[in-house]
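Appendix B, record 7
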Amino acid sequence: NSWQAIVRVKKDGKVVHSESRSFLKEALARDWGRRLDERIARDGVPQRELSVVTLGALLRKYGATRQGIKPLRRSMEHEIEQLATAFDRTSLSSLRAETLSKWALDRRRAGAGPATVLHNLATIRSVLNAAKPMYGLDINGQAASDAIAALGRIGAVAKGLVRDRRPTESELDRLEAEFIRIAGYPSTEIPMET
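Structure tokens (predicted):
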């Protein structure tokens, strides 16, 4: 007494998405199937319900993946955690360039330099671009790229300044003292003392 429409998407011979609905009339079933087919062709396969739904969760997942391959530098580990905390409530589905631009402008007002904010946005862009091949999430870093371009035009982000001086003897002496102090630590990989 009913008609069932089934839409399946296969990739490499495997079903990657399947949806079905029942209707009282054949015409309604065919119409629903056609519209769903057109939407998938236009927008891609709908995302499955995933454990990674916020940008913060994605940043942490990426950081954990990287740690499992090659330990991150402490500065990178800190940056990823700082960004993850800032974006814990930002859903991936609602992420837009304006979201990142507003965050970057707030960060600048709080005292972060243009090179630091640019580096943060570049990290976010890298993680977003890695999300599809690494985790099967159908997202990309275009929102971050758009934010970087717009913020660059108004001078809110920029590359780091070129150094225009050499260290003083006093600064070199303090560096050498620090290198000698840390030389005995097991985490010191490169001997820096002279």
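Remarks on this record: Residues 39 and 45 are 9 Å apart (CA to CA). The first strand starts at residue 3 and ends at 11.
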